[in-house]
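Review form for a predicted model. The reviewer records the input and the model, then writes brief findings.
Reviewer: anonymous (R2)
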Amino acid sequence: MSDHSAATSAAAAAATTSAKLPIPGKRNILITSALPYVNNVPHLGNIIGCVLSADVFARYCRIRGYNALYICGTDEYGTATETKALDGGCSPKEICDKYHAIHKEVYDWFDISFDEFGRTSSPQQTEVCQSIFKKLFKNDCFSENTMQQLYCDRCERFLADRLVEGNCPTPGCNYDCARGDQCDKCGKLLNPTELLEPKCKVCQDTPCIRDTNHLFLELPKLKDKLEEYISATSASGGWSRNAIQITDAWLREGLKPRCITRDLKWGVPVPHENFKDKVFYVWFDAPIGYVSITSCYTKEWEKWWKNPENVELYQFMGKDNVPFHTVMFPSTLLGTGESWTMMKTISVTEYLNYEAGKFSKSKGVGVFGNDVKDTNIPVEVWRYYLLTNRPEASDTKFQWTDLREKLNNELLSNLGNFINRVLKFIAKDPGAGYGSVVPKVQCVDSHPVTKELGRKVGELVQDYIEAMEKVKLKEALKKAMNISGEGNKYLTLYKDDEPTCALILKTSVGIVYLLACLLEPFMPSFSHEVLKQLNLQHVSLSDDDVESAKRPWDIVPGGHKIGTPAILFKQLKDEDVEFYTDKFSGSQSDRKDRNLKADVAAANKGGKPSKKEKLKNLPKQTPSI
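Model under review:
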C-alpha cells in the first residue's frame, strides 16, 4: 500500500471511530435541512427556510445533552445544473464544484454547525440510491410506461421538465414562466406536456411531442402504508400545520404513479438494461442524499437510518419541498420493506419576502448569502433578525427599517444594555463596584422581589424549553428576550445598601449566564462573547440547569472573577438603512447597471463619481456601524 493510500485509510478509520453514533439510553436525534440546490447562491429566504432553522434546533439539542447529528449538503444533479452548465459553457461538475464551495463559505459565515455537509454527486449517492431502487424493483413497486414527452428537434434531445417553460395551465393562474415540473406562482406540480405555449429553454424553439419509455413509482400500491404512517406520525410528531395541509391536499387528490426517470446525463444512472441511457429524477434521488451524506460521515450510517426504535428524525424545509418529504420519500422507504428511520417531525416555513417584492435566485432580487459579509453587520444580528422574522405560520417580509428597529431596540437597548450594565457595575473598583468579583450574598428569603423574579425566570425558561421541543423557534426566542426584559426591570430596584446591591448583582449575573445559554442556538457568536466577558467556558441547558433557573442568584458562585466587559451591539443609523436599501434595490443586474452608469457619468464629467454616487453604487463600500 502506498503512503498516500495508507494515510487515506487511516484518516477514514479515524473519522469512523470519532463519528457520533446513536447511544442506547440517550435521546438520539437525526436532523436534516432541505438540500440547497447548487446552481446559485442562496438568498436569505433560503437560509432561514432550512439550514439556519435546523441549526438552531441542532444547537439546542446539543446543549440539552441530546445526542444530535445534523446532516446537510448540496443537491447537485438534475436539469437546473445541466442548464446552468450549458449557459456557462462548462461541465455540470465544474458548476457543482464552484457553487458547493460558495454554499459552504456562506454557511460557515452564518455559523451553521453541520456535522456533515456533503454532496449528492458522490459515489456513495450512486451506491445508496441504486441499492434502494433495486429493493423497490424486487418488491414490484415500479411500472414501465410509454409517455409523451417534449422533444426539441434543434437540440436533438428529449427535454426534461426544467428545460421547458411556458404558461401555467391552472385556471386563474396563467403564469407565463411556469417550469415543466412546477409553477412557482401557484405551486401546482406539472408535467411538461401540460404547459401552454411551451418553449425549449436552451434554444427557445417550440418542441414537439414524442413517445419515450420511463419508470414510475407506483404510489397507489404504497397508499395504505403511507397513510398509516402519516396518520400516526403527523400527530405524535407535531408536524407543522402547513405540512399537514399540503400533505392532506395530495392525499385528497389521490396518489398517482410518479415518474422517477429523466432523459439527462448528469445524475445517478438507472441500473436497468432498458433504461441505461436515463438517470433518476432529482426528487427521487435528492432525499436519498440525506442517507448517502450520512454514509460519507460514517460507514455505520445504518445505525442512524435503520434504527427507528432509537433515533428520532427531524426535517426542516420550505413549503415547496413538503410533498417530496411527506409523500415521495416516505413511500420510497416504505416500499423497500426495510426498517428505516422515518421522519418524526417536519418543520416547514412559508416564504420570506424582500421589501415590496419577493426574493428570487433566478432574477437576483434580494440580499444573498455572499452579500451579508460586505454589510459590516455582525452575523449574530443577521441570525437574530431572520429568526425573529421566521415565516412559521404565514409569509413574512425582510425590511431594512425593521432590521434597524430590532437591532437598536431589542438587541442593543434590551439585551446588550442589560448585560453591559451588570458586568460594568461588577467590574468597577471596590467601593464603587466589586473589582470584577461576583459578590457573595446571604439568604434571599428576606427579599421577596428577587424570589418573584426567580419564579418568573423559571417559568419563562420552562416555556422556552416547551417551545423548542415543539420546534416553535420564534416563540422560544421571544421567551428568552423576555427574560432580558425582566432583568432590566429588576436592575431598577438597585438600592444604596450593600446587601441589596450585592443580591441584585449576583442574581443579575446569573441571568446573564442563563441568557448566554438560552440564546446560544440563535446567536452562538454572541453567547461566545458573553461567556468570555463572564470568564466562563461552557453553555448548558440540562434538566438541572433548567431547574436552577428558578434560583438565578445561585447560578454563578460568589467569588468568581469575571472578564472584561465590552459593548455587544452597535447602533444601526438611519443613513445606514438608506444606504443598504439603495444598494440592494432592484435585481443584481440592475445594481451592475447602476454602477456602470455612475462610472460612465463620472467619466463624461471628467471626474470621479460624487460621494453620494459612490455610497450608492460601489459594491464593497460599507458604512461604519
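Findings: The longest strand covers residues 142-152.
Further findings: The CA atoms of residues 112 and 487 lie 29 Å apart.
Recommendation: see findings above.
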